[in-house]
Amino acid sequence: MSLPLRSSRPPPRISRPPSRRSGDAYFSTIITVAVKVTFLLLLCGSSYLAGSLLGHRSLDLTLIHGESMSVGRMIHGDTPLSRKDVDVAVDCEEAEEQLIQFHVKQELEKHEKQRGAESSKSTSASETRRFPPKTMDKFANGLARVKKDEINEFFDFGNPMTRGEGTGEEDAIILYGNKKALPSTDKFLAHSTEYDDGKGIPLTDPKTATENCDAMNVIFTSNPGNTRQCTAIIGNFESYHIQRWMRVDTIKSTPIKADLPLTHVSRGYASRGKANFYAPPFDGKLSPVKRHWKMLRTFLQNVDSVLDDLTPILKKVARNNAVVILTCNMGQSALLMNFACSARRRGFDLGSVLVFPTDIETKELAEGLGLATYYDEKNMGPLPSGEARRYGDKNFRAMMYAKVLCVLYPLMLGYDILFQDVDIVWLRDPMEFFHNESSKVSNFDVTFQHDGSNSVRYAPYSANSGFYYARANKRTQYLFTSLLYHSDLIINWDSHQQVLVQLLAEHSSLFGLNVKVLDRDTEMFPGGYHFHSHKKHDFMKHFTKRETESYIFHMSWTENKDNKLLFLRQLGEWYVTDKCIGKSVADILGGGSSLENTALVQPCCAMEPIFSCHYRDKPSKLPCISSDPIDKNARSFW
Hints:
Blueprint: H1 22-54, H2 71-75, H3 83-126, E1 128-129, H4 133-136, E2 142-147, H5 148-155, E3 171-176, H6 187-194, E4 195-196, H7 206-209, E5 244-246, E6 263-265, H8 288-317, E7 322-328, H9 333-345, E8 353-357, H10 360-368, E9 372-373, H11 377-380, H12 394-412, E10 416-420, E11 424-426, H13 430-434, E12 446-450, E13 463-470, H14 474-485, H15 487-493, H16 496-511, E14 515-517, H17 528-532, H18 537-544, E15 552-554, H19 561-571, H20 585-589, H21 601-604
Parallel strand pairs: 7-8, 7-10, 8-9, 12-14
Antiparallel strand pairs: 1-4, 2-3, 5-6, 10-13, 11-15, 12-13
Helix pairs in contact: 1-3, 8-15, 12-14, 14-16, 15-16
């Protein structure tokens, strides 16, 4: 009689603890097979030893009838055994099965304990809240990251943004002030924003991150001066302003000193020890406040008559309810003439341009070039006619007041305005850009060219006050009314731009003014930053070859009119003949000639740009390598 085949017996039922995951079940199967094989080999080996030492025949694997005995042969019944041998073998087999089940159970229990410990550790970590609920749940309940470039693209906050990708500012942080504001469509993300799962702050897209935010406070921050800066966020009565504290002595205007205590400072206080924002003095003969009151009194006494005068002029000049506004005195008249001459030679319609001259001579020059004018003699007549020799001098400051009034008047009458300085040339009609209703720019109240400077003086917008578009509404009307009311700061700070930028920030926060500053690196509206910056060398090479999509070029960042003229000539953007530069109409046409519309176009506007080299280190249409540099030790542009 042979032993029954092992395969004919039903497999033993081994009880296993219920597995948590399919991975555990697979692992248990592997353990079961391994343990069975191991113990089968051990059991067979132990039976062989027992048979040899004690003389048992049950599983004697020695030679029987002169042949080698194997387990396989025994199982398949190739060796005849006695009845007693069979019974003993069966008992051994059952004992073997029970022993296997016992050891398998032990191994599985050991495995489950290990898995349970790991799971408990993981669960404990994932249940640790990022912010302690008892002390911070009124303002901090979760945290997430989004890409800076993506959130700016999604919302278009209006502020000029440097690219975040590949920098230490690549990610932005969203702090959730209420548990209900946490993302909910992605359950894993929702858990990770609230609890520390050991994987850092979760990263998601702006839409998901803000899907449950009923309101969102946006804070833009940097580290001016690269100081050891900290930021404190304090749960309290809501504030829309940021306090700045520094280790300085504000009385002595010291730079940062580590041994000084933190003290409250102006947001314009620079780390090197200079305060950029300071209140104008009331006392003194030349008090900015009293000078401002005098000018404001003149404005208030005459504003109604000025608006009456302007109404028919604006009605005639406006295109699509918008006008292009410039203001100029005799000292800057050559730049005004270059704008008009270059625009005419390129075929642009200047019918929507309105010039606010501050003297009769400039009024006649503008009209001789076919431009509409309005001379506000009572408010602008007292202003100086000489050119500004440098940024911030008295003539420069005086013309800043004219920049305020010439914008305010049309806005008060309900007209959109494109304001521009006279040191600009048109390459494409910029009105087309601002009147494109499909553009995101159409959603903003005011849109500015980027100044190029990231100085704290111009934070947070760095808006260039020499080229911007304003849509007439109550927010923009009050913005420029407020700028008029703050003319004492213009006098005190020597800058119209600096005051305007601070009012943009305040009115954006207070009244919801929608402010947009165009990207500094855009090729559509280049200016002095591009001209003078080595970082923009390649762009300016393309610009001189007319290989860009630029609408304008603004010769800003230049100390005085003389240098502006030379730079524009070198760029191939100068169109005014020498005999008309700095001359009055009488000087150009003769005292007995009558001034007719466009009478100055023929004698003053060259058919082709007038080119000449002046500085080899500045951009030029043609190589100027034989010229001296204007900046010491500067390398040649070509």
